[in-house]
Write a structure and sequence with these properties.
This protein has about 140 residues and is of the alpha+beta class. The protein has two domains: about 35 residues, no CATH class; about 90 residues, K homology (KH) domain (GMP Synthetase, Chain A, domain 3, 2-Layer Sandwich). About 35% of the residues lie in helices and about 35% in strands. Helix 2 crosses helix 3. The radius of gyration is 17 Å and the shape is elongated.
Length: about 140
């Protein structure tokens, strides 16, 4: 399987503007700029897109890991925070889940497995941290 996205940029790094488009069309000519990346401008940015990818991938992987262990989550919420300091220095996952019949130790084991083995975790060359809790 292959997926793709495209980017277009016009102008200088600071004053220019760009757009991102995804194969699925979910993003179509979605604006990004210096301000949306390094300040609080309108539009997306690469780090936000990486955070979305990591949160989504991890959450789905956790669901698969839980299923393999005999559990089905009622709900899993994951927030991913990417830290950019010249380079991406960290991806931090905060996950809360409602999983009937699981104890905290087994949930922590499943979450650690998902963190280590989701495809985006394996792609990222950075420190990946996590807080996982049952609700």
């Amino acid at each position: 399987m292959k997926r793709y996205a495209t980017a277009n940029w016009k102008g200088t790094g600071k004053e220019g503007t760009g757009t991102n488009t995804t194969q699925s069309g979910v993003l179509k000519d979605t604006q990004y700029s210096f301000k949306s990346r390094f300040e609080e401008g309108i539009g997306t940015n690469p780090e936000e897109l990486i955070a979305a990818a990591h949160a989504g991938c991890f959450t789905m992987k956790l669901s698969f890991v839980l299923n393999a262990a005999g559990f089905t989550a009622d709900n899993i919420d994951t927030k991913c925070t990417i830290t950019l300091d010249g380079v991406i220095t960290e991806s931090h996952l905060e996950v809360t889940a409602s999983v009937p019949g699981i104890d905290a130790a087994k949930f922590a084991e499943c979450a650690a497995d998902a963190k280590a083995n989701c495809p985006i975790s394996k792609l990222l060359n950075t420190n990946i941290t996590m807080e996982a809790s049952l609700v």
